[in-house]
């Protein structure tokens, strides 16, 4: 049997592939990352790329040892004789913050805005929109705790999805306060849940001792029923004065800029280094549990990774989920550009001339050529199939005269053009 791709992965296919859908179209992927690049680089972000595998310890500290990602979903990397301590990255932030510290990037103008895109890996239960290798676009800002930076980050995220043409997108905004606010909240949750501990899932019983806030994030229906039954107060009710003022400032900027959002008190990020602003990007037609993206402030992360205290904030969205949302909205990509010209030889002896003419055009345009001699009718059909605007034929007469017979495939007009004048004739 032919070998198939691993479960939870996808091939990104070229245009014209028989089973093409938007979420596996290589061109659609590039459209998303190109759009993100335009928007984010206009906002001052520089591109960064970090390794796809990192020390497991980085991910543990960067994502949090109590998260499902670290406990259950890590892909370990093994090679002969290694120390076994590498994992495929499940997200982008930890690697970027590590690179910021390791490469002394704090010397660059601050705050430093960075963006990247690439594959992420999580050994999850595979469903529609939930893969084991998926792709994210990531934006991170290091070096400022100003609420203006939070608002700008959210604005940029919305700009990217709007530039892609999506309309059914909403921001759910919350705040998880400062560490001391979360201590108070966790104490409240512990007191509230402890009498019901034995009804909680095994995972949530564990969370009750380690980090009660994470119970609120539980995927278990029984846990969610207990949460509803206990009428748990949201984290937002526990914000201290500073976090409250920060949250109000972020909202005021978003209001002033006309960014629509909904305050969602249920947003939780239960890790020590997360601070204050947290949000998710949702889509009307993609289940409530499947966000298009999410972001948050992580002022404690750089120190957690062994660097100097550096405030930071970032977001990521899933490219596959964005493409699924685009498909739901019936958005399509503009038709792909074909070559400007397809050059064909009428006899085998002229194939090298057709090839050479195509190569010399490539400094100014996309030009292709046929590998074998073709009859004119076949050459025109082949040119049309490739989406070319012109077909150029070289037979023995043309070869002798140093010309190409050029046909405009839209108008049918045919002219003889000197090889040296070809580039000019095809661009005017
Ligand atoms: P997270 O890093 O968990 O906040 O995820 C950010 C975004 O990445 C999510 O909102 C999804 O769009 C996407 N994402 C996360 N996990 C997966 C997955 N297993 N498959 C596809 N997309 C994912």
From TrEMBL:
<keyword id="KW-0648">Protein biosynthesis</keyword>
<dbReference type="InterPro" id="IPR004516">
    <property type="entry name" value="HisRS/HisZ"/>
</dbReference>
<feature type="domain" description="Aminoacyl-transfer RNA synthetases class-II family profile">
    <location>
        <begin position="37"/>
        <end position="334"/>
    </location>
</feature>
<dbReference type="InterPro" id="IPR006195">
    <property type="entry name" value="aa-tRNA-synth_II"/>
</dbReference>
<dbReference type="GO" id="GO:0005524">
    <property type="term" value="F:ATP binding"/>
</dbReference>
<feature type="binding site">
    <location>
        <position position="269"/>
    </location>
    <ligand>
        <name>L-histidine</name>
    </ligand>
</feature>
<dbReference type="InterPro" id="IPR036621">
    <property type="entry name" value="Anticodon-bd_dom_sf"/>
</dbReference>
<dbReference type="InterPro" id="IPR004154">
    <property type="entry name" value="Anticodon-bd"/>
</dbReference>
<keyword id="KW-0547">Nucleotide-binding</keyword>
<dbReference type="GO" id="GO:0006427">
    <property type="term" value="P:histidyl-tRNA aminoacylation"/>
</dbReference>
<feature type="binding site">
    <location>
        <begin position="91"/>
        <end position="93"/>
    </location>
    <ligand>
        <name>L-histidine</name>
    </ligand>
</feature>
<comment type="similarity">
    <text>Belongs to the class-II aminoacyl-tRNA synthetase family.</text>
</comment>
<keyword id="KW-0030">Aminoacyl-tRNA synthetase</keyword>
<dbReference type="InterPro" id="IPR033656">
    <property type="entry name" value="HisRS_anticodon"/>
</dbReference>
<keyword id="KW-0963">Cytoplasm</keyword>
<dbReference type="InterPro" id="IPR015807">
    <property type="entry name" value="His-tRNA-ligase"/>
</dbReference>
<dbReference type="Pfam" id="PF03129">
    <property type="entry name" value="HGTP_anticodon"/>
</dbReference>
<comment type="subunit">
    <text>Homodimer.</text>
</comment>
<feature type="binding site">
    <location>
        <position position="122"/>
    </location>
    <ligand>
        <name>L-histidine</name>
    </ligand>
</feature>
<keyword id="KW-0067">ATP-binding</keyword>
<feature type="binding site">
    <location>
        <position position="136"/>
    </location>
    <ligand>
        <name>L-histidine</name>
    </ligand>
</feature>
<dbReference type="GO" id="GO:0004821">
    <property type="term" value="F:histidine-tRNA ligase activity"/>
</dbReference>
<dbReference type="InterPro" id="IPR045864">
    <property type="entry name" value="aa-tRNA-synth_II/BPL/LPL"/>
</dbReference>
<feature type="binding site">
    <location>
        <begin position="273"/>
        <end position="274"/>
    </location>
    <ligand>
        <name>L-histidine</name>
    </ligand>
</feature>
<keyword id="KW-0436">Ligase</keyword>
<dbReference type="Pfam" id="PF13393">
    <property type="entry name" value="tRNA-synt_His"/>
</dbReference>
<protein>
    <recommendedName>
        <fullName>Histidine--tRNA ligase</fullName>
        <ecNumber>6.1.1.21</ecNumber>
    </recommendedName>
</protein>
<feature type="binding site">
    <location>
        <position position="140"/>
    </location>
    <ligand>
        <name>L-histidine</name>
    </ligand>
</feature>
<dbReference type="InterPro" id="IPR041715">
    <property type="entry name" value="HisRS-like_core"/>
</dbReference>
<dbReference type="GO" id="GO:0005737">
    <property type="term" value="C:cytoplasm"/>
</dbReference>
